[in-house]
Amino acid sequence: MSRFNSLLKGKCPKCETGQIFSSSGNILKLKGPVMNDNCPHCDYKFEREPGYFYGAMFMSYGITMAEAIAAYVAIVVLNLDLSVDAIMGIITAVMLIFLFPNFKYSRILWIYSFTKKDEVEPADKIERLKI
């Protein structure tokens, strides 16, 4: 599986098998995504140190601002004659709809930014190293 597909599916960056999040959350029930402490497959610890995901907050902010700008550009391109309050309402609704996916993918992007994939050594290379 390619690294990009693993990122989109929320797989562990080390083994690309285990899930990073145990649940995606439900905005209607106001339940956020639940992140596993360790990979269920390879036991890789996702939070490397206290405050590790502080930088993911800035990634989430960037993603949210990109969505807000895209919503505004869509309103302008569609030439909708809306008041400033209506435009702000639409942008706020877009931000709220993507709240949990932004949280989830900002953390996944942050983990993938600082973690290398485990490379599996071919059997013949391992044998040559033993000799």
Give your account of this protein's structure.
By secondary structure, the chain is mainly alpha-helical. It is 52% helix and 4% strand. It has helices at residues 3-9, 54-77, 84-97, 99-113, 123-130; strands at 21-23, 34-35. A two-stranded antiparallel ribbon has the order 1-2. The two termini are 32 Å apart. The model has no long low-confidence stretch (mean pLDDT 86).
What secondary-structure arrangement, pairings included, does this model have?
Elements: H1 3-9, E1 21-23, E2 34-35, H2 54-77, H3 84-97, H4 99-113, H5 123-130
Antiparallel strand pairs: 1-2
Order of helices and strands: HEEHHHH
Describe the largest sheet: 2 strands, antiparallel
Provide mean pLDDT, rounded.
86
- Radius of gyration based on Cα positions: 20 Å
The proportion of residues in beta strands is under 5%
Amount of helix: 40-55%
Distance between the termini: 32 Å
